[in-house]
Amino acid sequence: MHVLKHAVRGNGHVHVAVDLACAQADAGHDVTFASARGSYDDLLREHGVRVVDVPEATGGPAAVRSGWALLRLAHRTRPEIMHAHMMSSAVLAYPVAKVTGAVLVTTVHNSFDAHSNLMRLGKVVVAVSEAERQALITKGFPPRKVVAVLNGAARSPRESLPLDDIGPLARPCVLSLSGIHPRKAVGDIISAFAEVHPEFPDWHLNVVGWGPEREALEARVADLSLTDSVHFMGSTLTPKPLLEAADVFASASLADPCPLTTTEARAAGCAIVATSVGGVPEVLDRGRAGQLVPPQDPPAMAAAFRRLMGDPAELAAWQDRARKGSEYLTVERVAADYEQVYRSVL
């Protein structure tokens, strides 16, 4: 049973849980997905996952209702594993697992979250990269109970969803695909692109995603007179066609335990330029599958853009490097790794 506070699109932990639940059901396991506000309910049901709406724990009385609903559900379905993907979900699932005899597994998707210590309620705690595992151990998590399962989203069940119509990419292009909020530092990508644009006026930057910084960044693009070259495209449930059409994928995150979009960009064959934070170096094979640059350093990112934009052979070489070995980043491998984790605690 996967337990989430909500399952709203555009959240990496939701995408991990949805991919995992679908893959597990495809492999023949009995899988329940318990959350409120689901964006992927139909997809989950298509794969044979039991989808149950559990009231969101937004406060004291709501938490009691949510916990009671989760307990009734667990009594009906008798899961061997309860897998919590959020802090509030871990708190709700812990007593339910105790009462029903299930084993609680937790996945920490963001160790920098102030409440991530609550995830140690799990009998085993899964970190989404080795860098994230080390961060949790530094925070005081017992090393013996923390394991790493590197995220992967290639060949995701979500790829079968009807394509979002957000328009074709303007090309040749750099593609940014993330939330538009401070931690993702999309403004640094815009700064890097602005630096090289006079040398490569035919190139475009396509910004895919949504978030609170969008209006401010749009205004900044206008001030830079780049509105004809920088395009804010909105969010999408189906990024694969966009990634396959892009020339370069860029990520400027200031912190990222293990971004799914970078794993998808590798599988799509984008040349990748990304900041060397969190699990990103692991996803990019320590720089062999993509160029790593320091965070908060637009000039370094601009230099990488310049090499790719100015040399078609260099661009093609980095696109080929991204593809090689990307099969390790599939959802099937992630599901197999999690099955080993489950078996180790049963």
UniProtKB/TrEMBL annotation:
<dbReference type="GO" id="GO:0016757">
    <property type="term" value="F:glycosyltransferase activity"/>
</dbReference>
<protein>
    <submittedName>
        <fullName>Glycosyltransferase family 4 protein</fullName>
        <ecNumber>2.4.-.-</ecNumber>
    </submittedName>
</protein>
<dbReference type="InterPro" id="IPR028098">
    <property type="entry name" value="Glyco_trans_4-like_N"/>
</dbReference>
<keyword id="KW-0808">Transferase</keyword>
<keyword id="KW-0328">Glycosyltransferase</keyword>
<feature type="domain" description="Glycosyltransferase subfamily 4-like N-terminal">
    <location>
        <begin position="11"/>
        <end position="152"/>
    </location>
</feature>
<dbReference type="Pfam" id="PF13439">
    <property type="entry name" value="Glyco_transf_4"/>
</dbReference>
<dbReference type="Pfam" id="PF13692">
    <property type="entry name" value="Glyco_trans_1_4"/>
</dbReference>
